Automatic annotation (TrEMBL):
Protein name: Two component system response regulator, sigma54-specific
Keyword Transcription regulation (UniProt): yes
PROSITE patterns, sorted: RESPONSE_REGULATORY, SIGMA54_INTERACT_1, SIGMA54_INTERACT_2, SIGMA54_INTERACT_3, SIGMA54_INTERACT_4
GO molecular function: ATP binding; sequence-specific DNA binding
UniProt keyword annotations, A-Z: ATP-binding, DNA-binding, Nucleotide-binding, Phosphoprotein, Transcription, Transcription regulation, Two-component regulatory system
Response regulatory domain span: 3-117
Superkingdom of the source species: Bacteria
SUPFAM superfamilies registered for this protein in UniProt: CheY-like, Homeodomain-like, P-loop containing nucleoside triphosphate hydrolases
Keyword Acetylation: no
GO terms of biological process kind: phosphorelay signal transduction system; regulation of DNA-templated transcription
One Pfam family from the record: AAA_lid_14
Length: 458
């Protein structure tokens, strides 16, 4: 049931309006002036306000201004006997939803109320949508404490203030789209749209239509004119994910769009100006793609103005614990389930080929497996053992050359032990896996390392 507040210093007028509206099923509350009305509005939610303009203590226009100042978005309809064009224009200029003069007809009142309530519903829906979008945006947080990721985010923050093209190059699951959204959010374009486009997911014969739109009759099924993603993102940011999968013909048109800041719809002759900030992402080596002639070199130059390379999770292992905790909170399991030391060791012993996305999936699976136990242990995470763990990664034969002067093998081993301990944060199990040896063998090397430190040789 819609709730309406009637504000008028004439009791008979309030009573008449109340009878008309209540007969149509509306709930009505009355106030004698603006001061009384504002107190009531602060304590109750209304779908609309019908207010006289001329009233003692606080008139209708003052009430409207006070509601706006306190971010009360309820629509206001003014009703008054002092009808002049000037007062009507002033009321609408200040934000009134409508304006009715006394004496009035019942049908006119009911029509205005219905139209205004529809407007009120739109305001409410927009407010709810904005809240949902804010919640969704909160899910796009970038969680880190590592210096490596901090450097990446610092670069993203700097380039956000400009309109330069950005190329984010990283493995799948490293958060390329999150970084792109962060750049948009921190940019002057943040009030406009962020439009993501997965270039790999678009059919090759439809990619140009998807990006640049098409005219009616441009191809079979094009029964009306349609705008593309570039036009839709006007004033905002377009994010071209998996740019390396874009067909060569579309690459040529994309290059022209970036150079000229104009696009041409499929089947059309007119050039349409577009104002968008372009961020691209890929997990491919585009330089190699250029050598294979699968990617245009001039397009690479155009999109690679400011490169950003988010590190894989295995290179920022200090972020694993806080990321896992974050995912537990998102799952609503942070209070009921905790990660113990053996579980943390299991997480840090894994290579994470799927990066942060795989870690999120592992958290969800671990919560299910933990059940009512209250702890996620190494045993809970044993499913990780079937994947890639930090076992020995063979070094290509030509990557390390023995110098002609030779080396001191013991010092070389000591240096590797030191690095492994630093990378694993003194976790001996993980350090031994980093070196591809058993823990017992690692203990021997570590004992040798400690003895050499005492004698000053390490």
């Amino acid at each position: 049931m819609n709730q309406i507040l009637i504000v008028d210093d004439e009791e008979k007028m309030r009573h008449l309006l109340a009878i008309i509206l209540e007969s149509r099923g509306y709930k009505v509350i009355q106030a004698a002036d603006g001061v009384n009305a504002f107190d009531i509005i602060n304590e109750n939610a209304f779908d609309m306000v019908i207010s006289d303009i001329k009233m003692p203590r606080m008139d209708g226009l003052e009430l409207l201004e006070k509601m706006k100042a306190n971010h009360i978005t309820c629509p206001v309809v003014f009703i008054t006997a002092f009808a002049t064009i000037d007062s009507a224009v002033e009321a609408m200029r200040r934000g009134a939803a409508d304006y009715i003069t006394k004496p009035f007809e019942e049908d006119r009142i009911l029509l205005t109320v219905e139209r205004t309530l529809n407007f009120s519903r739109i305001i409410s829906e927009n407010r709810d949508l904005k809240q949902r979008l804010q919640k969704a945006e909160a899910g796009h947080e970038i969680i880190f404490k590592s210096q490596t990721m901090a450097a990446v985010m610092d670069m993203a923050g700097r380039v956000a203030k400009t309109d330069s093209a950005v190329l984010i190059n990283g493995e799948s699951g490293t958060g390329k789209e999150l970084i792109a959204r962060y750049i948009h959010r921190m940019s002057p374009r943040n009030e406009k749209r962020f439009v993501p486009v997965n270039c790999a997911a678009i059919s090759s014969n439809l990619v140009e239509s998807e990006l640049f739109g098409h005219e009616k009759g441009a191809f079979t099924g094009a029964d009306k004119k349609a705008e593309g993603k570039f036009e839709y993102a006007s004033g905002g940011t377009i994010f071209l994910d998996e740019i390396g999968d874009l067909p060569l013909e579309a690459q040529a048109k994309l290059l022209r769009a970036l150079q000229e800041k104009r696009i041409q719809r499929v089947g059309g002759n007119d050039e349409v100006p577009v104002d968008v900030r372009v961020i691209c992402a890929t997990n491919k080596n585009l330089s190699q793609q250029v050598e294979k002639e699968d990617f245009r070199q001039d397009l690479l130059f155009r999109i690679n103005v400011f490169p950003i390379q988010p590190p894989p999770l295995r290179d920022r292992m200090e972020d694993v614990e806080i990321l896992f905790d974050y995912f537990l909170k998102k799952l609503g399991a942070a209070r009921s389930v905790k990660l113990d030391k053996s579980g943390l060791n299991a997480l840090k012993s894994y290579l994470w080929p799927g990066n942060v996305r795989e870690l999120a999936n592992a958290a969800e699976r671990a919560v299910i497996l933990a059940g009512d136990k209250g702890q996620i242990t190494g045993d809970t995470l044993s499913f990780l053992n079937s994947g890639q763990t930090r076992d020995c990664v063979p070094i290509p034969a030509d990557e390390y050359k023995l110098p002609r002067t030779g080396i001191i093998l013991e010092e070389f081993e000591n240096n590797l032990v030191r690095q492994a301990l630093e990378m694993s944060e003194n976790n001996q199990t993980l350090a031994s896996k980093l070196l591809g040896i058993t823990r017992s063998k690692f203990r021997v090397l570590m004992k040798q390392y400690k003895e050499n430190r005492k004698t000053g040789r390490a």
